[in-house]
Amino acid sequence: MLSSTRKKYDVFISFRGEDTRxxxxxxxxxxxxxxxxxxYIDLYVKVGDEVGPMLIQAIHDSQISVIVFSKNFVTSxxxxxxxxxxxxxRKHHGQVVLPFYYETDSSNIVxxxxxxxxxxxxxxxxxxxxxxxDDLTNPGKVSKWKAALVExxxxxxxxxxxxx
Length: 164
What we know:
Blueprint: E1 9-15, H1 17-20, H2 24-34, E2 39-40, H3 51-60, E3 62-69, H4 77-93, E4 96-101, H5 115-129, H6 141-153, E5 158-159
Parallel strand pairs: 1-2, 1-3, 3-4, 4-5
Helix pairs in contact: 3-4, 4-6
């Protein structure tokens, strides 16, 4: 159930910048703005801002989260952290979550697929085993990311290969 209180943003867009910022995500953001839909995208982060807390707050302040899964989405620990927070807001506050697959498909997520998804998680597992990454000091972190991907893969989604 959605909260009856007005949220600051209608939509939060989670995406891997290097994959989609200049094409799909940028166009989506512009189309939503044109329709007067208040959208949070990381363009609003200013030099010197502490990014993590801003993004987490923007997720909490949004009615809907659109997750743009792209080839390199999981290579960003920030994207995976956003995903965890988005799913928490879905579970506890009824936030609507709309997954979108951009030039990839859900089979890359279910079972963590092949290619860049598989390689990214193999790297995270190695880093965890070798204690090479502060982000992964929580032994459950990689498992939480994997579980979140499996959970979101069960949500009805759209695929860019079938829509313009």
